[in-house]
User: Which sequence fits this backbone?
């Protein structure tokens, strides 16, 4: 399988499923309407976050027998993660946000974004499992990916702010 | 059984999901909610109290939702208690596996309050 095919599988099959799942998760559980922007390839630079949640993904393509593994990350720039948490928990602007709960919420949103895609992809013959979420906290961090992986970043726009979904896969 | 009398146990290793479930359950009329952070804690709480409905996550450390279901079904006082799996695992085989192990119902995250309300009504209708 060459890089173009891999990128086409990622863009044509995997990415739409993750985007749809992310939109639904945010609308349903965080009460935030999101609109995906144009995908950005990793050559344009990785997005910087204050807090991000990542889910590992591994599985296979039933049609070809190829295996794939990678990860899906939600990357929230400065204060965006907190804003989404407030919306999710219906907290007022003056109510305090517990860091541990914020981290848990980010992990849970990533879990739902990946998990919702899983069922959709099973219907397409893409069978995979997802990991427990991991959360990274730190101003201006980015999530580096292996050079051999195909990685696409999708800006997710809301009325008030923007965050990013990063989908990265390797195929074998 | 009125909604206010129903004792619900919510089991999830995510404090976020426990909070969301508690808040949503209260919004749809269920106020007696006890939380457990994992399957092991849930089993302890079930030894000390009789819950009318158990809502449990699937993927949890130590004792996951399926194992919790199996262990509860071995208890005489929990053989018929409705157990609903609250999870992102929405594939057909996942649903079949859960039902085979004694789960009564299934709700896939993310869900709306309306969906949870409908699922809870369905659970209560069979008790």
Assistant:
């Amino acid at each position: 399988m060459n890089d173009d095919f891999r990128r086409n599988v990622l863009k044509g099959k995997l990415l739409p499923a993750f985007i749809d799942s992310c939109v639904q998760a945010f609308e349903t559980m965080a009460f935030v309407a999101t609109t995906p922007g144009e995908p950005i390839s990793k050559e344009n630079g990785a997005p910087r976050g204050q807090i991000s949640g990542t889910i590992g993904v591994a599985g296979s393509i039933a049609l070809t027998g190829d295996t794939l593994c990678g990860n899906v990350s939600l990357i929230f720039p400065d204060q965006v993660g907190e804003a989404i948490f407030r919306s999710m928990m219906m907290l007022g602007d003056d109510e305090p946000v517990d860091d541990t709960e914020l981290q848990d919420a980010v992990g849970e949103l990533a879990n739902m974004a990946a998990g919702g895609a899983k069922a959709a992809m099973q219907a397409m013959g893409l069978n995979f499992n997802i990991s427990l979420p991991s959360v990274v906290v730190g101003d201006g961090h980015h999530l580096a990916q292996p050079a051999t992986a195909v990685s696409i970043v999708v800006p997710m726009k809301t009325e008030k702010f923007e965050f990013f979904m990063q989908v990265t896969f390797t195929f074998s | 059984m009125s909604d206010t009398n129903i004792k619900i146990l919510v089991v999830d290793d995510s404090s976020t999901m426990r909070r969301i479930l508690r808040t949503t359950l209260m919004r749809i009329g269920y106020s007696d909610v006890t939380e457990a952070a994992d399957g092991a804690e849930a089993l302890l709480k079930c030894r000390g109290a009789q819950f009318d409905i158990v809502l449990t996550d699937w993927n949890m450390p130590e004792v996951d939702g399926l194992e919790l279901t199996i262990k509860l079904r071995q208890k005489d006082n929990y053989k018929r208690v409705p157990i609903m799996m609250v999870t992102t695992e929405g594939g057909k085989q996942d649903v079949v596996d859960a039902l085979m192990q004694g789960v009564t119902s299934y709700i896939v995250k993310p869900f709306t309050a309306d969906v949870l309300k409908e699922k809870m009504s369905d659970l209560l209708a069979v008790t």
User: Anything to note?
Assistant: Helices of chain B lie at 15-27, 39-48, 65-73, 92-100, 113-125. DSSP finds five helices and five strands in chain B.
